[in-house]
Amino acid sequence: QVHLVESGGGLVQPGGSLTLSCAxxxxxxxxxxxxxxxQAPGKEREFVSAIKGNGGGTFYADSVKGRFxxxxxxxxxxxxxxxxxxxxxxxxxxxCAADSTIINSQIRNEGAYDYWGQGTRVTVSS
Length: 126
Hints:
This protein is mainly beta. The protein is built from no helices and eleven strands.
């Protein structure tokens, strides 16, 4: 059974940094594409970043490009999202997602991911 656990959320001031982590179990991790999505209060869940399995590429939403960096450690079955230059509009619950069969054209589509974590809350406020 696939299990995803996010960690690293918290309260940070504007301009600050946070690193989110997602630990996966029950999967052949290197073959899975991993994604980060977020849902702000009163808004729909939106794509943040994703990284393909098997040495594929990394993808970012325009709103976070240049500020956020996603990486994976296949030996530890984890992905991280390094978030720099945080803004109040980055406030949201951040979710980790995984799937083994996503093609590039689907990578930003939350419906393409079969497995989800419970989320970790990020609040950017002074």
